[in-house]
Amino acid sequence: MPRPCVPPPAPQAPPLRALLSRYAAGSVLACEPVAQGLLNRGYRLCTTRGHYFLKHHSDPDTADPAAIERRHRATQRLADLGVPVVPPLTGRDGRTVAVIGGHSYALHPWIDGRHRHGGQLTRGESARLGALLGAVHACLERVMPPKGRTRPSASPHPVESADPAATFTLIDDLLARVRRHRPADSFDELARHRLLERRALLERHADRRPPRGGPVGWVHGDFHPFNLLYRDEAPAAIVDWDRLGVQPRAEEAVRAAVIFFVQPAGTLDLPKVRAYACAYRRAAGATPAELAAAVHRVWWERLNDFWMLRWHYERDDRRADPQFPAASALVVWWTRRYEEVCDAFTR
To answer: Is the pTM of this model over 0.70?
Structure first.
């Protein structure tokens, strides 16, 4: 999905002494940045009391302390239902968010684990992944407010699908930026090729713009391999609930599958997608028709999406560059194999 085009905030060392004084977490012995994460910052802390994950909520869209605490309460309720999450520690003041110098921080227990992408999962583990996301959606329906009484930060109304006219304008702008980039490099060459290719695809399929999304529900909002930790072969913790909100549930299921099961050449591992989607439908109570509509909307979203190129050319931010070759090839392959992809999600 498109990301806001603002410069990434400058790095800032966390105020460890002031932070730890608010928790019964001992004194710091070591602090190491955690590499993953595009929007917020994380640190592994070793203290005299153990190991912790310190999260600096630096993304301005999700850094409001009151909103963070609401998400913390949601994860605690999910933990009570047996969902593998990591609720934060409560400070001496009874709060789970520490605001120091205008910055919001939260301290979580450290979970030893590793990230696994779809290529590392068996079909059985792929089914387990789908069942896990389905359980998350079902449990969120139990612990969160009814969708008609959500707070303003959680939009219960799906946004309009992308307007191809606006996308054509964006493609022209990005092509101009590619031409102006000096010295030209291999990324520029691939970007130009994909932009021209995408424009041709949009011209051919502009009449397939989908309507608003289907049934909405509470979703994690950012379910992908870097937000799921495995211990051995089992999921140990779903992390990063900053995008928790009300959106079409089946679309989250499709987006997650596309991220987990994309292969380096820009194809999807459809047998694993099928196992994942079948388990998701059972766990979430989703219908094949709901998944088919979600597949169409996410395909259209990807057809009109250029957030990686916008980061590269508008923000001079290269962190998403390694994802671009596979992601940009996927939408072309998906368009050609549309019926097979839809079948994998619905049968």
So the answer is: yes
